[in-house]
């Protein structure tokens, strides 16, 4: 009695079965490939074709994200048994789309990396993703940078980190989480024993938020890479953080942006359609960094508040920044 495809001896018949399986359903194709080592070579071409077709479906859904596109993504992700990395950066995903993706994450047992950078995800979308993270035991890397999750979104993600034992890399830069958001994440770091990399740069975090992060780092021996550049930590916040990780061998701390960091931030600002306030107090960007930022400011029509105090700016640096925002009605600039 025939019970498994692998029991078939007729290679021609096997090839005939493999092709329609792959064409009709990628999960069936993968199951066929796994069913018998003897016949895995027969299924390789059909499976490869099916994977290519599946990737095209992902791209088509991503191109029309929001409403129908979000539903397509959820459907594809829910059926996915192959895709381990999904990049949906810059697809104008809003809270509705984020909620759809979050719904699919709950039942997905394969996806390990999800990139949602540079979208329009707010606190509600972040809350949905946070809730999904509580029940997801696979996802290891999540990028939510350059959205606008704010304080409430940071609290939701922080709550998720308390119950998630898998995620090792989290990027939340450029999300305006402020001191309160930083405190929520710090509280989660005290009990999270998995996360190794955290990026919360450019988030308007001041001394109080910095001190909360520092206190969390003292009791967390797992996190070994944190990016706090482009914040307003001040000497007090920076000092507390440096003291907290002093002596931690191999710990990567990014706390002042300097020229190179300013250039990277400028690249993000060129495409920014969300961030309205940027506080870069005491980041040592210098005149060269100011030139890079000025170039981005000329094409960025969204930012309305910029604070560059204590950044070693000379006449040249201050001049190019002022020229870049000249004529912008209501623009608040502090240097």
TrEMBL record:
Annotated InterPro entries: Leu-rich_rpt, LRR-containing, LRR_dom_sf
Lineage top rank: taxon: Eukaryota
Protein name, entry field: F-box domain-containing protein
